[in-house]
Task: structure prediction
Amino acid sequence: MNEGEKMDVYFYTRPGCHLCDEAKAVVGMVAEEFSLTVLERNIEENDEWTEKYGLMIPVVEAAGEMIAYGRADYVSIFMKLKQKVNK
Result:
């Protein structure tokens, strides 16, 4: 990634998901560290997303790679995104 270039991070969620609410806060904190753009996607709006992520949400994806799902913790998301940003 080039310096100054923003990376898009996709956050797959659905309404009423308590784990998603917690993960959203974590992803928001990490995004601030790296100036990332977080794009939230409600899996109920797309059959493909529902099929792919329905049992895994919340899911965090960056640069075409799933970097976290289920319980999302700050340190693991931070480290994985740091690797991607520094490429």
